[in-house]
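Please, structure for the following, as tokens.
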Amino acid sequence: MAKTTKETPLMQQHNAIKARYPDAILLFRVGDFYETFGQDAVNASTVLGITLTKRNNGDENSSQLAGFPHHALDTYLHKLVKAGYRVAICDQLENPKEAKGIVKRGVTELVTPGTATNDKLLEHKSNNFLAALHFTENNIGIAFLDISTGEFFIAEGDAEYADKLLQSLNPAEVIYQRNQQRKFKEYFGIKFFTYTLDEWIFTEAYTEESLLKHFGTHSLKGFGIENLHNGTIAAGAILHYLKDTEHPNLGHITSIQRIDRGDHLWMDKFTIRNLELFGGADGSNTLLKTLDNTSSAMGARLLKRWMVLPLNDINKINERLHTVEFFIKETDIRNQIVAHIKQAGDIERLVSKVPLKKVNPREVLQIAKGLQQVDAIKSICATANNDYLKRLGDALNPCRYIVDKIVKEINENPPAIASKGGIIANGIHEELDALRKIATGGKDYLIELQQKEALATGISSLKISFNNVFGYYLEVTNLHKSKVPETWIRKQTLANAERYITPELKEYEEKIVGAEDKILAIELQLFEQLLIELQDYIAPMQVNGQVLAIQDCLTCFANNALQFNYKKPLVQDNNILDIKESRHPVIERNLPVGETYISNDIFLDQSAQQIIILTGPNMSGKSAILRQTALITLMAHMGSFVPATNAKIPLTDKIFTRVGASDNLSGGESTFMVEMNETASIINNITNRSLILLDEIGRGTSTYDGISIAWSIVEFLHNSYAQPKTLFATHYHELNELENKLSRVKNYHVTNKEVGNKIIFLRKLAPGGSTHSFGIHVARMAGMPPSLIDRANEILKQLEDSREGGDIKETAKQLSTPKMQLSIFDAHSVTFDEIRKLLETFDINRLTPVEAMLKLQEIKEKVK
């Protein structure tokens, strides 16, 4: 029978706690270290690069062990969560010195990607959303919460809408019902970090009760979400999950907002990807990177949300545009507001740390400084000649009482960690000041006491000292022993002196030894009281953060307009899109120095020019023209000025793009299947206010199939009741025939100039179709061998001739193969024939060395 070892009390405690968190790495606090055991230790050592050891007591059941110092928690926690692990932090819940038996321990926080609040785990310019989905037969409820800012959103709709929101807000973690795993994977794939919960949590009664209890209300009508039953279930599931992961302090979640599909310009996930709004192939050169010149992390997060959820309300759009125009004209006001925003800090995340009990003294002082900037901005807005700016200023609350209290009570240079002390200023607490005087002025007091006693006793050599055995004492040499008063108590006799204590010295010793502990206790108590008062201001401070973020975005748009020469668009409630000298905002910012972007005019309406068929050479800029039309429309709906000299933008409800080809091989779909899926999504969702951009539709299949599909798509869009504005870039020049058959279809091409055998792309739009794609010219520019290029031209001529006089399929059958196909020496075959004949005339055995050299030279001349 195998020998077994009884578990130690410590390991019994660990195993009991670990059993409650089986799917998380348990960081178990032991003294000054966080330890991991068993499989947790294996995982932690792999991710963190720390040593894996064994607790070996001579038995077979030794446990693997890995740990790190407790002060390094932030660094190691960051790595574990980023690696996709849930981490349970188990702390000591009592002072080991006061504990009887084993120290009491418990999990104080369960950190997951979606519940992270630590600065090292967060991207300052991006929200860190936790999302919850509630699946029903016909609908999906969806909620998003950023615990680090308190922002809480709710929506519901079909799978496509849920997918769009997930793609747009990009949550760090998604939770949903455990019995819906197959459906989640089918709808949304495997790219999200997910966690499943029991089905009973997703019940209306339980989740509504959770929400009402949290917000302290009798109904949800005040938030305007009472009819979003599935959405509220998802929101309630988030609150359950936070409590389940040891996040009970949620006082900063003060409100919940609905996201209505009709309030925003719709872009599906394909469009967001195709337009490279914030996720380019290499993560750079995106629209977000180009436009984001905000002054704060709050503004950067809001700008990203404005980009994926642009406005669809003409009044709100114009409100932003007019304010941007105001900021452009009023340079001083703009510069003052920007300067104050820069000094305010990240108000949203700082405020959220207060109820989470994770705010430190330095951050509290920064909150006060931020509120002082709010006060200054409020004054500026009050005098501004702009209604929206005045309204924003009116919403600001400087919270003057708490600002004064913080500035008065907190030291000018407080510590980053409260437990280090030095938080509270002098003059705030009488006992604290007295203790500080004892702690810092102890030496002076002892000198005074020594002088006083020496004078009173006549012992001139009297001195006061300290040791760890009996603390402070008076030392008297044997010469003066007779002068010692009777009230002194002898503690130690030495060879040449004696040591005494007095009641006064003992009383002072008790004061000075306990002063540091008492000082820290009083400071922490005063700091805690300040935080309790600060909690009353969370809601108004959050509003301050939101208002400053809006102003940050609008001043950013004004600076962009001045720096990049953007103009104010005219957004109208009609269906005419008329952009003069439009430019691609991203490409023009990344051109080589000295090169200017070639601008183009774009016009689309529903009476004369609903659909543009755009042809032109490869690499000529067709795709750029499509994208810039969409990006300018998007920027206008965000409230930004646009890269054009003049822009009339119709109020647009949806932008659809099908640009470029990409295989979904992991999903088993070809380029053509992906293309058709995306195009079908467009066709089935168009309205009369939609803008559609199609690039190379049908190229993923055979020429005949491709032309047929592309032709029928144009016909469908033209004849549709919606008549959506459409730009259709294509290689199929046959589609130019549609201009003669459909009244609202117009042909345009991207111009070029041929110089000798080269082609120069002029990147300028002109009426009329293009005759051919210049693909062979592009192949030459790419460095294809000349013989290959010549052969391609030969085949092209035969195929073009057949198009005029016969069947292209028959011509393809009759295409001749190259005559010298079998020779690998095509260019030199004649020369090699001559050399071979010359070598056949030689009699090598009779050649003299000089003759051989001459013959070799002759052969060498032939192959030059």
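The first helix runs from residue 9 to 20. The chain has 29 helices and 27 strands.
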